[in-house]
Specification:
The protein is α+β, with helices and mostly antiparallel strands. It has one domain (17-103): Alpha-Beta Plaits (2-Layer Sandwich), CATH 3.30.70.330. Helices cover 25% and strands 30% of the residues. It is built from three helices and seven strands; from the N terminus they run αβαββαββββ. It has helices at residues 2-14, 32-39, 72-77; strands spanning 20-24, 45-49, 62-67, 82-83, 87-88, 90-95, 98-103. A hairpin with a 2-residue loop joins strand 6 and strand 7. The longest helix is centred in the N-terminal third of the chain and has 13 residues, at 2-14. The termini are far apart. 19% of the residues are buried.
């Protein structure tokens, strides 16, 4: 039973999608299309999701960008990600079933 659980955990780690980035601190003026256009400079963006709050009509300042392959590494190598000319985005990636801050800007 324990061996089976261990194999399952290893399989889970191998299936983590390394092409997905979670983005925080998105300016409220930025739309998902603008975010997709920005990240397209690093590779083909398969999907860009910025969820909206139903009550306010604004997005929540976070989103998810999925690249076609592991092109996420190209985005992670850039030191700063600025959208709308003023906002530094925070990029996070999901590795080994826990969040690892790959790029973080506090200002």
């Amino acid at each position: 039973m324990a061996a089976s659980a261990a194999r399952g955990a290893v399989a889970l780690r191998r299936n983590i999608d390394r092409s997905v980035a979670f983005v925080r601190k998105i300016p409220w003026t930025a739309a998902s299309s603008q975010l997709k256009e920005y990240f397209a400079q690093f590779g083909h963006v398969k999907r860009c999701i910025v969820p909206f709050d139903k009550e306010t009509g604004f997005h929540r300042g976070l989103g998810r960008v999925q690249f076609s392959s592991e092109e996420l590494q190209n985005a992670l190598q850039q030191e700063y990600h600025i959208i709308d000319g003023v906002k530094k985005l925070e990029l996070m990636c999901l590795f080994f079933s826990k969040f690892v801050f790959c790029q973080m800007f506090l200002r």
